[in-house]
Structure formats: C-alpha cells, structure tokens
Amino acid sequence: MRIFSRVPKIDFMAQRKVALALSIGLTVLAVALLFVRGLNFSIDFRGGVLVEVVYPQGVQLDDVRGQLEQGGFKEAVVQYFGGTNDVLIRLLPQSAGPAADDGDGDSKAASAAISTKVLDALGSAKTGVQMRRIEFVGPEVGKELSEDGATALLFALFGILAYVWFRFEWKFSLGSIAALCHDAIMTMGFLSLVQEEFSLTTLAGVLAMLGYSNNETIVIFDRVRENLINMRKTAVLDVINLSINQTLLRSIITHFTVLMVLFCLFFFGGDSVHSFAVAMIVGVIVATYSSIYISSGVTVLLKIKREDLVPPEDHAKTQGRDKDGAVV
Amino acid sequence: MHQYPLWKTLTLIVVALFGALYALPNLYGEAPAVQIATSSGDPVPSDLGAQVAKALEAGHIAATASRAEKGGQWVVLFSDPETQLKAEDVLQRELGSAYVASLNLASTTPSWLGKLGARPMPLGLDLRGGVHLLLEVDIADARKSAVQRYLTDLPNYLRGQDIRYTARRVAGDAVQLEFADADKLEKARAAIAKSYKELDVSVVQGAPAPTLQARMSDAEAKRIVDYAVQQNLVTLRNRVNRLGVTEPIVQRQGQNRILLQLPGLQDPARAKEVIGNTATLEYRAVDETPGAAQSAAASGIVPPDDDLFYTRDSHQPVLLKKDVIASGPQLLDATPTIDPQSGTPAVSVTLDSAGAAKMFAFTRANVGKPMGVLYKETLFDTNYNAEGVAMRERRDVQTVISVANIREPFGKRFQTTGLQQKEAATLSDLLKSGALAAPIVIVEERTVGPSLGADNIRRGTHAAIAGFVIVVVFMAVYYTVFGLFADVALMLNMIILVALLSIFQATLTMPGIAGIVLTLGMAVDANVLINERIREELRAGLTPQAAMTAGYERAFLTIADSNVTTFIAAAVLFLFGQGAIKGFAVTLMLGIATSMFTAIVGTRTLAHYVFKGRKLKDLPV
Q: Residue A113 belongs to a domain with what CATH number?
C-alpha cells in the first residue's frame, strides 16, 4: 500500500511567516492560560493527602462528607472516581484537620497519620470500605519534587540543544529548541485549559514528548544536510522544502503508530497513566506541526547557508561524487 | 550482491534465544504462598524444609512446592488461598515465635529457570499493592541530644581533672561553662581541647564571669547526624523484619531520609505503629531528699536538676536526676529472664563499653543508694467514640518501672527487674531491635491496595496488547513483506526488552508499562524510515538489492541521531526522577537501545535470507 506514488510538492516554507505569527500568538495565549488558570497540580507537587476508597455498594457523597466532618475533616474534597462506589477524598496540607493542630510541635508526624484517621472516620471495619490507595506528600517533599521537575525540564532542553549543536550547527540547534519550547508550552497550555491533573507521571510524559518531538526535527534536518551536500545548485529554501516533503510520509506514519499506542494507553491504561497519555498525545500532534514550521522556520529565519553545514573541503568531495554519479 | 556477514546472523540468533529464555519467567503467574522468615532476620536454617514438611503433613495440608528463597527466607506454595490460610496458621503454630510466617504470592517459575538466574521482573508497589514511606530523621533532635550529652560529660571530666566550674548551661548548640577565675578557665580550656578533639572550644567575650564555650565541629555534627541515620536504618530494618513482609526495602536516601517499601502489606496503620514505636530505657539517679517527691507532685514545682515521674505499679511520685547514666542507644542486648533472687520476670541488659564505663563509675560511687529505671514508650491507642468510630491517639508513656538500691558496682551486664512477664518479653524485644537514635517523621506516603494493583496490571496488559496488535496489523498492511519483517523485529524487541528488565531485576511499575507501550509505537519508526528510504531508492531507479542496501545504510545515521535525543530526555528523567518515574526512564532507555538493534540488524538479516539469490524486479515494500 503506497499513499503517495511520488514525493509531494508542498511549499511549506512559503507559509512560514504566517505559521510563525500564528505560533507566536498561540504561545502567548498558552502562557497567559498558564498564568491565569494555572496547572492542576497533583499532590505530588502541592503536598496533601489523597485517599481512594471503594464501598461495597454505591454511596451518596453527602454521607461520606458527613462522616468525614464528624471525624473532624471539614475541608475534605470528596468526589466520585469512576462509579458511585468509588470515592476519592483529598485534603490540602492546610486543611489537614484535627491532627495538624495537636500543638506539640509534632504536626509533621501527625499529618502522616491523617490517612489513617480518614479511614477510621469512614468506619472501614464496620461498613466494609476498602482502601484502594493512600497518598501523602509532605509540603517539603512537594517543594523538592517541583524543583527537581523544573531542573529536569531545563536539563533535557540543554542536553538536546548541545547534541543538535554538536551534530549539526547552532542555527539548527536554536531552531529545534524553539520548536521544543513551543511544544512544551502548548502541551502545558492544553493541560491547563482542560485542567488535566499534572503529576510526576505527567511531567515524565512532557519530557518523553520533548525527546520524541525533537526526533521529528532531527529526521528533517538530517535530510536537509544530505540534500545540501548532494544538490549544490538548488537554493537553500528549496532544499529545505524538498527535505520536508521527502520525510513527510515517514512523519505521518510514525506519528500514526505512536498515536495509536498512546490512544491505547489513554483508553485502556487507567487513571495512573491517563494524564501521561494526554500530555504525549497533545505533544505529538503539536510536534508534527512544529518540526516543520518552527524548527525549519526559525532556522531559515536565522539565515542558514550552505556553508554552515558543508565545510569547504567537503565541497571538493561532493563535486567528485557528483561526477561519479552513484552515491552508495 | 554483498556478502552478508555471518556473525550478524549468529549474534541475532544467540540474542533471540537468550532473550526468550530470560523473558520466559514473566509468563508464569504467581501462586498463593506462605513465606517463612526468622524473627531475628537471620537466614533460615537448612533443615527448615524438613520441619515445614512435617508440620504440613501433620495438618493434612498439601503444598505444591517448598523452597528456599534468595534473602534467606523459605517459601511454600499452595494451590488455593484457603489452603494458604490454613497453612499459615499451622506453620506459625508449629514453628513457634522464632519464625514469622506470612501470606504472600510467589512466582511459579520452574526451578530449572531459577537455577539459570532467570527470574520474573519484580512488580512495583503500584502493581502488587503495598506501603511506601519516606521518613525523615530529625537532625535537630540528634544534635540536641548530643549537646545534652556533653552538658553531662564535660563537667564530669573537669571534676575528674580537679578543675572546678561554677555553672553550666546549654546555649544554642553549644555548652557553656562558667569559672571563678581566668586561671581555672585556661586550665579547663587546655584540658578539654586535649581530650575532646571533636569540640571547638572558645572563650565567650563580654560575659559577666569567665565563660568557656564548647561547640561541636562541623565534621563532628555531620558524623552525629550520619550516625543517627545509620542507627535508625538498622533499627528500622529489624522492626520491618518482624512485620513479615516479603522483600522489604529499607534504604537511606539523601542526607537524612530513609525510604521504606513494604510490598504486599495491606495495613499502613500497622506499619506506622511498628516503625514509630519508640520504647527505650533510661537509667538515672534518684533524688533522695526526704519528702521532695511528694511536695513536687503536690505543688508542681520540680527542683531544677530533677524530673518528676510516677512509678508504674503504685503510682508513687519519684524525682529522678536529669543526668542520664545510660540509655537506649547504649544497649547492646536485652533478653527476658527470671530474676534468681526474687523469682520475678526481668530483662538482662548488656551495655556498650561507653555505657558500661559510666555505669560502673556511677554504681561504684553510689553503692547502697537507689537508681531508677525509666521506661519511655510512644503508644498508639485505638478507642471508639459514641458513634463507634475508631479514634487513634498517640500517647507518650513515661513511667518509672523500678527503683532499686545498688547492691554492688556493676558495668557491662546487669538486670532490670520489676516487670510483668509479657512486658519483659516485649521490652527485651523492642530494646533488642534498638531504639531510634533520633525521632523520625513520615514526609511521604504512598499506599496501594491490592485491588487497585490488580486493576493496574490488567489495564497495563490490555493497553500493551491493544497497542501491539494495532501496530503489527498496520505495518503488515502498509509495508507487506517488509512490514512483516518489522513485526518480527518488534516481537523480538519486546522479548529482549523484557529479558533485560528481568536480568537487571528492574521493578516493573505502571509508568514502566507505559514506557514499554510507548516503545512499541516508537520502535517501528526505524523501520518506517528504512522502508520509506528503500521506496525512494527504488523510485530513483536503483535495483532492488542495491535499493535495499542503500536504504539501510542511509537510514542508519538518521535513526541513530533521532534516537539520541529521546535517549537524552529519558536519561534526564532517570537522573531527576524517583521511584516509578525512574522505572519509566529505564524502560524507555533500554527500549530505545533494543529497538535499534532489532529494527536494523533484525530486519536486515530477515530481508537478506528471504530475498537471497532471487531475481527481483521490485521489492514488496
């Protein structure tokens, strides 16, 4: 089965200015969204207590709230999780109930006991309530995880920047970093828009997406370099256009397979990988666009020249090869 | 046509066979089992198997397998959970308190695979259920008690050197001593600097009386923290052993944190109770001033050098000196015994050399005088309120368990009497497992119930299978024969990836499964690149064999380049992530490496043997 019998001839670079303007607009919008609406951080970063319980039969949330209030947890956020017998209870650090103010300066130790108290308040032994999971993250740990997360994001960007610089050239490097920042901001902007929970796993998804997104850019750049060496008489802009067209089908197919498995994770993988799948799906879709318009677009904007990639001594070699014809 | 190197084919076959062998254990499931460990944490004796068999036979219980496990435990497998429950009961009764029998799941991998070192991937807590706790050791407290120790030790030392001081106190993290004149101060300074090299000694300027200040050097402060963390680590290990959990993890994390993972444990409250349980003894001198204890109890005014406690049995007030002669951390051993003189239960205690020296010095100087033993414990009580709701409360118990006159000087070994039978046993148990050198607080908890764990496994498997089927069908339809090559390579990739994870004993977590599924989707990228390239070369007019060679050669660099960046992202995750995220990063990194091997070498070899010697007009790509 072959979708195209020939390499398509789409003039991507002609639209690059419009695309760049559009991207800048969307990026500003996403940043604004991140500032105004913010990310829906999970307790990994915020700290707090989360308890998921399953009842033998469906329950009314008000009953659960009543029980919790009797146990002293007035600020508890209670919601269904899946069915009406699966209930999620969240407590923020400041609303951690009676245990936090026992006044002996031992409030940190006490907050770990909250989860136990929550279960006690629900009367787990009597009503057959089953604990599904308990998560407690102390405020200090939450802060550290946030810092580590931000550092990881920066290190990943710098690592990729350095690698592309080393393998190609600084204009390409800046082009790919521009695309990566664009992808990261757009993905997080989307997560903010739909208020998908942002946990450590989500962050892992964003980082994996960055690695993968750059993979796209590299495939195009690799082709640009090869074509610049082999087609010495063609204008640089045309070479880039041709390279994108040549790799277009491959990009579509690879994205298709990756998206398929991600949708499998999204639909079958359950809650713990849900936000991971969302982050990656959005990222992969955005990356398709950015690898063409942003990374190549910025590289053109930086006035990429043939000499940047093909050193003079290579010219001689290329000419020699041109005469021989075949390149194997 | 190029000669295809034989070594590549052979490598591929060898790798595939090894992969299949080491991935195999993961296909076997788990069976209900009873795990037996010694309560002391030592490896089980070699004759335990015979004892177990005898006990089970007597109880008419049929086991499907019975074997020693790595880590010095014994595992007995059963066909169903009912038999397992019955067996646990029987075994615990028959083997006695020297052993801990606990319910568990054990792999049913045949023993010949086990002998080859082939084991299934261990499942993470999010898949099998269990308790994860991150504990923080209270450094400030460790330092504070060290300063308290110096507050007692330094004056004692000066007295021994016949240097008189007029006052002593704690100032922040230092000890200050006042002297009558500068001459005595200078003598004391020289003496302390000589004998206590770990202290920074200085003269306090502008103090009303000549004052000397001794502060722990930074190295010493660090050593004390290190020691406290190490000691807590040992203590926690001992306590965790008594929970009877399979493969518990107790390890230091960073400067002052301890990671505790208790797979399979269903009751986090119990875990917290056991690890938070701090029982310790303190030996102190008794304030003998007549009537002082009664008046202190009545007025609430306690003399500055004393603390007020009550005796356990008769609830009489007792004043104990603040100075501690010996305490929990100095206890080496404690065993329950019977006091030969009174015939009552007692605990025989052994002190370390520092504790013994102090104890000997004190008892020699105080023969005939009383010494008090203070018992300190943190308890968690569960009470029920009027609505029948359980309320757990933390309670600090500090009672004087014995005040006895010192009959003769003693040091290293002696007995503490005045306990009840059961108390003697539990106290010696708790003392033996060691007191915590510094208090710990739980800073992170993640507990996964067994039902959620099972759900996660099911969901992860479904996602992986669905993803695999979709990719395989798509590749076969789109690239026909070359698509099938890619499918075979993908299958091989999965096998090698699982085999590597099993060999490294990498813990499989839910994000790890996500990493495997993601690898499925990304691995075929290499084949897409190669196949598209071959199509291009064919269009460019190359002969099929030449197009194939050119396709593989030209795609190679692109594949390598594009994989490196994903690898960088995964490596960063590995460095900064923790727990399950590290698992994801490991799977992703390994997946990238294995996919490059199978997608390039694997499909190339297949293509070579399938198309060898044929006259081709076109390639089925």
A: 3.30.70.250
Which tokens sit at A271? 């809650």
Pick from A131, A198, A256 the residue to mutate for testing the B interface (most B CBs within 10 Å): A131
Which residues of chain A are within 8 Å of residue B391 when distances are taken between CB atoms? 117, 120
Closest residue in A to B571 (Cα–Cα) = A156
Q: Collect all residues of chain B within an 8 Å Cβ-Cβ radius of residue A159.
A: 568-569, 571-572
- B401: phi then psi, degrees, rounded to nearest 5: -90, -20
The answer to whether residue A291 is domain-embedded is yes
Note whether residue A156 is domain-resident.
yes
Residues A203 and A260 in one domain: yes
Is the Cβ–Cβ distance between B268 and A114 less than 8 Å?
no
Query: Looking at the structure, do residues A102 and A197 belong to the same domain, yes or no?
Result: no
Q: Which domains does chain B have, with CATH numbers?
A: 6-24+451-611 (1.20.1640.10), 29-108 (3.30.70.260), 140-221 (3.30.1360.100), 279-435 (3.30.1360.200)
Q: Specify the CATH number for the domain of residue A205.
A: 1.20.1640.10
Burial of A231 (0-12, 13-18, 19+ CB in 10 A): middle
Q: Give which of B259, B267, B257 is closest to B448, Cα–Cα.
A: B267
Edge-first strand listing for the sheet containing B30-38: B65-69, B73-77, B30-38, B99-107
Is A306 found in the same domain as A222? yes
CA of B512, closest CA in chain A: separation in Å? 10
A228 and A102 in a single domain? The answer is no
**Domain termination site, one of A107, A137, A167:** A137
Report the C-alpha gap between B620 and B482 in whole angstroms: 7
pLDDT, tens digit, for every residue of B36-68?
877 666 778 888 888 888 888 888 888 888 888
Residues of chain A contacting residue B522, judged by C-beta atoms under 8 Å apart: 212, 254, 257-258
Order of strands, sheet of B413-417, starting from the edge strand that comes earlier in the sequence? B331-338, B345-351, B413-417
Q: Same domain for A17 and A75? A: no
CA distance B568 to B589: 9
Q: What torsion do the CA atoms of B405, B410, B412, B418 make, to the nearest 10 degrees?
A: -20
Q: At what angle do helices A236-268 and B510-539 cross, to 10 degrees?
A: 140
**A177 plus A257 within the same structural domain:** yes
What residues make up the domain containing A55? 48-137
CA nearest B567 in A: which residue? A211
pLDDT digits (tens, 9 = 90+) for B169-196: 888 888 888 888 888 888 888 888 888 8
Partner-chain contact B269 A54, CB within 8 Å: no
Of B392, B561, B576, the CB nearest to A116: B392
Is residue A7, in this structure, part of any structural domain at all?
no
Indicate the residue among A113, A137, A161 that finishes a domain.
A137
Distance CA A108, CA A99 (A): 9
Interface of B with A in 433-492 (CB under 8 A): 439, 441-449, 451-452, 455-456, 459-460, 462-464, 466-467, 470-471, 474-475, 477-480
Inter-chain touch B513–A131, beta carbons under 8 Å: no
Q: What is the pLDDT of residues A71-115, one digit of tens each?
A: 778 778 888 887 788 888 888 765 444 443 333 333 444 455 677
> Which residue has tokens 């169903």?
B80
Q: Show residues of chain A in contact with B395, CB under 8 Å.
A: none
List pLDDT tens digits, range A191-229.
Answer: 999 999 999 889 989 988 888 888 888 999 999 988 988
- Give how many domains chain A has, as a whole number: 2
Tokens of B602: 């694997």
Backbone angles phi, psi at A9, to 5 degrees: -125, 70
Token pair listed for B200: 């920074």
A109 and A24 in a single domain? The answer is no
Of B441, B444, B480, the CB nearest to A109: B441
- Cβ atoms of B507 and B124 within 8 Å: the answer is yes
